[in-house]
Specification:
- The protein is an alpha/beta fold and about 400 residues long.
- It contains 16 helices and 17 strands.
- Helix 1 packs parallel to helix 2, helix 6 runs parallel beside helix 8 and helix 11 packs antiparallel against helix 16.
- The structure holds iron/sulfur cluster.
Length: about 400
């Protein structure tokens, strides 16, 4: 039985905030994110609306100190640095940011220079996540990125010169025409660059994207499933050999540089969400804001909270989701901590799933932790599906 009353199921005060900037230079061929090119004329109204939303939400909340703030997109750095600084200041002034907090902005090559980055650093940003994706211009063009590799390297140097000591880069694999050898060169280049954090994205073809059209036309040649697995395992081998800790399915970090913000999601902890299409998770309610920037601006300006969907996560749904997210981390879930937090012993409440997955060699219990095995990592969707049943 779930001891519902008194359980802390996502109801702690949020210690994290996500801010969505839904604008981009152009639309990448694989992109299904809430991002729009050609809306520069909305920048200023959007920033006003964001600030209004932050002030309005925080006026109902006890002041708190955020441990992480994350500006994602879209391309946050498409906005003038003064706008990003103003949004960050609004969060700091109205909610509070703890000393030593991780404050990240995503950035794309071609939208940053040293002056802009120095201004962001002075405003309090201390981490940049740079969308490199590939170290080969032909692949960047093939996936519709709006930048070259030399722009990515220039951006990386500018980030360092601006004083950022915590930099992450994103890399994509299983791209059309990409071979294992080409991927190996990409991994070597990434390790050679020396960021503190590397996130991997396996290409998936999403409805409504340019790649979905090309796929339907039968002109997209993608690596097969076996090659995808070889690429993933090669990444684990090369990045760990390069000094990176593989700490989450797709994420690697130098010691001490795990993404604190993303760990909030993987622990299923609460967080604020601000901006068009942003999801927040506060008081057990997961709520999503209106996606279209102009509709979001209109809603906020007319006094609405711009929330178009809310679900209250309780009981079994909350537990399943917390387990699924927690198993994404290689260290898995601390069973004692989970029980303290929810009142539930996973090995009893989910005995059928745990025993079945253990018998198949997909999860293991080591000491007080439950975690996926290497095989389980490759079959994580199967593992997750079990906990949804
Ligand atoms: S830069 Fe990122 S958010 Fe923008 S279109 Fe490309 S993938 Fe999408």
């Amino acid at each position: 039985m779930l001891r519902e009353p008194g359980n802390r199921m996502g109801t702690d005060h949020p210690k994290a905030a996500y801010v969505h900037i839904p604008f981009c230079v152009s639309k990448c061929h694989y992109c299904e994110f809430n991002s729009y090119p050609g809306l520069d004329f909305l920048f200023s109204d959007y920033v006003d609306a964001l600030v209004m939303e932050i002030e309005r939400v925080s006026s109902h909340m006890e002041p708190a100190e955020l441990d992480t703030v994350y500006f994602g997109g879209g391309t946050p750095t498409i906005l003038p640095p003064a706008d990003l600084s103003w949004i960050l200041f609004t969060i700091s002034d109205n909610i509070g940011i703890a000393p030593g907090a991780e404050v990240t902005t995503e950035a794309n090559p071609g939208t940053v220079d040293q002056e802009k980055l120095s201004e962001l650093r002075r405003a309090g940003f201390n981490r940049v996540s740079l969308g490199v994706q590939s170290f080969d211009d032909s692949f960047l063009a093939r996936i519709g990125r709006a930048h070259s590799i030399s722009q990515a390297l220039d951006a990386y140097s500018a980030i360092r010169r601006a004083g950022f000591a915590n930099v992450g880069i994103d890399l994509m694999f299983a791209l059309p025409g990409q071979t294992v050898d080409i991927w190996e060169c990409t991994l070597a280049a990434a390790v050679g660059l020396g960021p503190e954090h590397i996130s991997l994205y396996e290409l998936s073809i999403e409805e409504g994207t340019r790649f979905a059209e090309l796929c339907a036309e039968g002109v997209l040649e993608l690596p097969d499933e076996d090659e995808q697995i070889v690429m993933y395992e090669l990444a684990i081998e090369k990045l760990t050999a390069g000094g990176y800790e593989h700490y989450e399915v797709s994420n690697f970090a130098r010691p001490g540089f795990r993404s604190r913000h993303n760990q909030v999601y993987w622990r299923n902890d609460p967080y604020y969400g601000f901006g068009a299409g942003a999801t927040g998770y506060v008081d057990g309610d997961r709520s999503r804001r209106i996606a279209a920037p102009s509709d979001y601006i209109r809603a906020i300006s007319s006094g609405s909270d711009a929330i178009e969907f809310t679900e209250h996560l309780t009981g079994r749904a909350y537990l399943s989701e917390t387990i699924i997210q927690g198993l994404r981390m290689l260290e898995g879930i601390d069973l004692n901590e989970f029980e303290r937090r929810t009142g539930v012993d996973i090995t009893k409440e989910f005995a059928t799933q745990v025993n079945g997955l253990r018998d198949r060699g997909l999860i293991e219990i080591a000491g007080s932790r439950i975690r996926v095995t290497h095989t389980g990592l490759l079959l994580l969707n199967d593992v997750s599906r079990e906990f949804l049943s």
